[in-house]
Specification:
Elements: E1 3-8, H1 15-27, E2 36-42, E3 48-53, H2 57-67, E4 74-77
Antiparallel strand pairs: 1-3, 1-4, 2-3
């Protein structure tokens, strides 16, 4: 399955959101768009990068729209492992 990184410029994650994202990543479940949270990288200034498995960029954008979260740049990426 292709992997994507997307960027959120101003998405301050609460402790609850971090816990939920971590749980989703550990569970490995996909949503109705076929998107699976793999990891997220964030800082206190609201800069967030999500690493997702998804069929395509459109699925990544649909995933975020359904959550009510604006999605900036989306890039397909590859892993060294």
């Amino acid at each position: 399955m292709p992997m994507f990184i997307d960027f959120h410029d101003d998405l301050k994650l609460s402790d609850q959101m971090v816990d939920e994202l971590g749980h989703e990543a550990r569970e490995g479940r996909s949503d109705e768009y076929g998107v699976r949270q793999v990891d997220a990288f964030f800082n206190a200034h609201g800069k967030v990068y999500c690493l997702l498995e998804a069929p395509d960029e459109e699925a990544v954008r649909s995933h975020h729209t359904a959550l009510g979260i604006e999605c900036g740049d989306v890039h397909e990426v590859h892993s060294l492992t």
